[in-house]
Amino acid sequence: MYSDIKSFTVKLKLFYKHVDEKKLDHFVCCKKAMETFQQCNWEEVKVKFMSIIEKLQNEFSTRFSDFYSIDFKIKLFQNPFIVDTNDVESCLQMEIIELQSDECLKTAFRDCHNLIQFYSSLCETKFSKIKYFAKKMLTIFGSTYICEQTFSLMKYRKSKYASRLTDGHLNAVLRISTSKIKPAINKLVDTIQTQKSH
């Protein structure tokens, strides 16, 4: 995901430069439109396109500023064998040196196509800090998704049409909506005592 964000950020810079130079190779529809409508004032169109790209760049840098601040940690997580140990946090330095010096682990990393599998295979006593670091990095994205899902559900549920919804009800609705536990409806129904007619 982070690689996609970084590559799109670089693409936006390229788009901005190309629009400024009237190179519309990456904007096929715009290029055709400009060729069809010769009377268009390119300077006006250029200013409009460039302002849209600028807004997109600003939006990306704002929304993903957290990722940029942990760029080195992401690189370290993706490949702990290529980082300079001087740049690593002091609490991880000794274990990174041990890791980078072990040829068997280098081979295992190269052959392994799954980072979770690689970090799980590390010895707990020898690489406890690296394993802890990897767990933290792995949980960043999962927790963000659940948080965003919860806010979306809350926005949907707490509207002007649900004005009688209390905080307690909202809490219960959000808990049910974000839980993966399936209710045992048949068991619940069986335990309810039905009212007998007189």
From TrEMBL:
Protein name: HAT, C-terminal dimerisation domain
The species this protein was found in: Cinara cedri
